[in-house]
Specification:
By secondary structure, the chain is of the alpha/beta class. The chain is about 45% helix and about 20% strand.
Length: about 140
């Protein structure tokens, strides 16, 4: 059962305010992948504490980098499960993880930060790692 929308709305807004497009259906996920953006940031958002304290603040800071992707999309774990499941098929061979942050190039996964790289890591450390990924 999904979380109540009033509960996740502020968490969604944190990313949409940064220019993230929400993908709520498998078809929207496939359309994103088929666009083959030069560089795109994908976030599997979550209600967990590490998303609130580490991931979303780290993403916000990382987007200050000159090479930050203009294409930005997000799916929400525990909410639009079909869209999340479809996105995760593009993360293989990585197992399901939420939150997680992925970098796509030309519609293909190039790097992924799993929950283990978010939980217990500061927002600054996550921002630094993302900025290094953007520069690479």
């Amino acid at each position: 059962m999904p979380y109540p929308e009033f509960m996740v709305a502020p968490m969604r807004k944190e990313l949409t305010d940064l220019g993230f497009e929400e993908l709520r259906t498998p078809e929207q996920v496939q359309e994103f992948v088929n666009r083959k953006d030069d560089l795109a940031l994908v976030v599997v958002n979550s209600v967990c504490g590490c998303a609130a304290a580490n991931a979303r603040p780290g993403i916000r800071k990382a987007l200050e980098h000159a090479s930050a992707p203009k294409a930005r999309v997000t799916v929400f774990a525990g909410m639009e499960t079909d869209a999340v499941d479809e996105m995760r098929t593009h993360f293989l061979p990585y197992p399901p993880s939420s939150p997680c942050i992925a970098l796509f190039k030309g519609g293909q996964l190039v790097q992924l930060i799993e929950r283990s790289g978010i939980e217990g890591h500061s927002a600054d450390a996550i921002a630094d790692r993302l900025q290094a990924m953007f520069a690479e």
